[in-house]
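Hi R.,

Quick one: here's the Cyclin-like domain-containing protein sequence you asked about.
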Amino acid sequence: MENGDSQTVAVVETAAPAPSPPPPPDPNLDDATAAVPLHASPTEKTDDPIALDCETWNIKSVSALGALRMLIEALERLADATGDVPPTPPVSRPSTPRSMEMRRMHRRTPSSLKLAQGADGLPSLPIGSPEAQPHEPITVEVGAHAEDITLQHAAIARRFFSKVPPPFTLQQYLLRIHHYCPHSPGVYLAAVAYIHHLCVSDLMVPATNRTIHRLSLAAIRVAAKALEDNKWAQERIAKVGGVSNNQLMNLEVTLCFLLDFELYVDEKIMARRMYMMQQAAKHGIGARGRLNDQFKLKLPQRNKGVK
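And here's the predicted structure, written out as tokens:
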């Protein structure tokens, strides 16, 4: 150096730039005709349904396909134990003002084009006609002059009834949904928690061959919205599920009201509800006794002294 001082020059090795992570998945932008093969998962998680002996099992040991198969197996057995239960008669309510009906018919379409993509090219699989008519309620009314809450729950639960059982099994139906719209294991386990709450704990909706298809579709859809950031487009889910967009929305709203919007689930709740679901399916017993004896979905008698 010019001033006679010696300096040590640090040699810095330039490492190769780290590869950037792939972008997060966006189901709305996926190819509409793409399907997920139902082969073994590339992880150590099992794709086979697990027969549980306690409620403290490790939910991370099962794959999405395994969790779905556990849901299918338990719900089909529960439906066999319940038998056929007819829906309650429809409950009349004051008609919706014409102005409100017109506003509903002219709601704006989503501003994002992504929300409407994803249904073209998918095979159609109609699930059949619902028992409830379009004018029947899907929400619970509150207030001094509101009808009995039990009566309201029985009325909106009609949304899950089909006029006749679909011509395919629940297994065929849900594996088709997983084929075209796969979800995470947590979504399927959360759906089990919702279904157990309605069908076993509170006995609001009977698990029968006429209800389990619509009920499981709504539970999976609501669980996906509650737990996941990226969700399949509404139009795609509706077409794969064999219902219209409006019917799917009604099923979601109905499920939320029957659950009193208590949608939070954690790993402990998922594990416990799945175990309890399997036990109910195994023994045909709900929280209040045998399902066939307890499921008397008759409308409660209205108090004539209350107007």
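The beta strands are 285-286, 289-290.

Cheers,
M.
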